[in-house]
Amino acid sequence: NDKIEFDMDNIIGTISIKLWNSAGIEVKYGTMLSMAQNKLEVDVSQLPTGLYLFTLKMGEKLKSGKFVVER
């Protein structure tokens, strides 16, 4: 799958996302404006197969976790 989805809980405002590979190297960073979306899709088609960590900052809320890209 070339996209990952994050649950957004109807956040309105600026959202920042950072992705790191398993070696701790930042591989993607972005900010966007959300207008009460339930889901955020991030394109990971350029990332090689592997384990990745993410951090989402939504106002005062922080959400972090991991996901796997498989080809």
What does this structure look like?
It is built from no helices and 4 strands. Helices cover 0% and strands 77% of the residues. The N and C termini lie close together (7 Å). It is globular. The chain has a 4-stranded antiparallel beta sheet, with no helix packed on it. The model has no long low-confidence stretch (mean pLDDT 88). With 71 residues, the protein is an all-beta fold.
Overall 3D shape: globular
Order of helices and strands: EEEE
- Radius of gyration from CA coordinates: 12 Å
What is the tally of beta strands?
A: 4
Number of helices: 0
Strand order of the largest sheet: 2-1-3-4
Structural class: mainly beta
Integer average pLDDT: 88
- Biggest sheet details: 4 strands, antiparallel
End-to-end separation: 7 Å
Helix content: under 10%
Question: Which spans have pLDDT < 50 for at least 5 consecutive residues?
Answer: none
Q: What is the strand content?
A: over 45%
Write the layout of secondary structure elements.
Elements: E1 3-21, E2 26-43, E3 50-58, E4 61-69
Antiparallel strand pairs: 1-2, 1-3, 3-4
Question: Gist?
Answer:
It is built from no helices and four strands. It is mostly beta strands and 71 residues long. A hairpin with a 2-residue loop joins strand 3 (50-58) and strand 4 (61-69).
